């Protein structure tokens, strides 16, 4: 069995980390509901991701595999997505007929965040060629070390219900389920402090 090496990602590596995420989310139910057109998805999702989880690179809380086949973007306690920039990109990217519904979903997801300070995982993704090979588990294991070292809670939103069992293996618990209008299910999950 090959060991999967995971290390911190530097800000200069953000583009390569985001590329793997774009591949990973190409069939994500929620993201493709928001951006169903392939061209618009490829054009706008890197920008969405940069505003949603990109601050991880500034704070030294982005992780990647040595071959860039997977990455995890964590936001430390007190740091959140760049909501203003994210909203502007969504207004540009999403079909106007769906935009109100998308913002309703994003508002409901935001309201599900824990009130206590917590680590937030905006995105973890693995190149589909490497999915099922332990890359996601290696990323979670390495990146949860910071949460555990500080005895803090972690939070994520599973936009693909297929991933819920993986997160549960790492101690995350389903906090709620969000389904609004025509949007796919989103599953907010919390991991108690350890």
Please describe what this structure looks like:
The chain contains 8 helices and 7 strands. With 194 residues, it is of the alpha+beta class. It has helices at residues 14-24, 29-34, 38-53, 55-58, 83-93, 96-111, 135-149, 164-169, and strands at 6-8, 62-65, 70-75, 119-126, 154-158, 173-174, 187-191. It starts with 5 loop residues before the first strand and ends with a strand. The mean pLDDT is 94. The chain has a single domain, classed as Aminopeptidase (3-Layer(aba) Sandwich). α1 (14-24) packs across α3 and α3 (38-53) packs antiparallel against α5 (83-93).
Order of helices and strands: EHHHHEEHHEHEHEE
Class derived from helix and strand content: alpha+beta
In the CATH hierarchy, the architecture is 3-Layer(aba) Sandwich
Shape: globular
Low-confidence stretches: none
Please give the alpha-carbon distance between the first and last residues: 29 Å
Strand order of the largest sheet: 1-2-3-4-5-7-6
CATH topology: Aminopeptidase
Rg, Cα atoms, Å? 16 Å
Number of helices: 8
Query: How many independent structural domains?
Result: 1
What amount of the residues lies in strands?
15-25%
Helix content: 40-55%
Number of strands: 7
Mean pLDDT: 94
The major pleated sheet works out as: 7 strands, mixed
The CATH C-level class name: Alpha Beta
């Amino acid at each position: 069995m090959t060991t999967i090496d995971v290390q911190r990602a530097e800000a200069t590596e953000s583009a390569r980390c985001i590329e793997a995420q774009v591949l990973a989310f190409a069939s994500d139910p929620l993201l493709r509901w928001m951006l169903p057109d392939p061209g618009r998805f490829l054009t706008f999702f890197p920008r969405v991701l940069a505003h949603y989880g990109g601050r991880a690179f500034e704070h030294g809380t982005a992780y990647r595999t040595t071959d860039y086949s997977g990455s995890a973007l964590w936001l430390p306690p007190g740091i959140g997505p760049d909501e203003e920039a994210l909203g502007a990109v969504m207004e540009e990217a999403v079909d106007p007929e769906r935009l109100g519904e998308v913002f309703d979903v994003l508002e409901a997801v935001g309201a599900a965040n824990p009130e206590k300070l917590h680590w937030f995982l905006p995105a973890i993704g693995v190149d589909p060629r490497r999915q099922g090979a332990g890359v996601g588990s290696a990323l979670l294991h390495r990146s949860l070390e910071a949460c555990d070292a500080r005895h803090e809670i972690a939070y994520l939103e599973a936009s693909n219900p297929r991933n819920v069992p993986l997160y549960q293996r790492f101690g995350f618990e389903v906090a709620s389920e969000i389904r609004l209008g025509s949007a796919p299910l989103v599953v907010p999950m919390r991991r108690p402090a350890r």
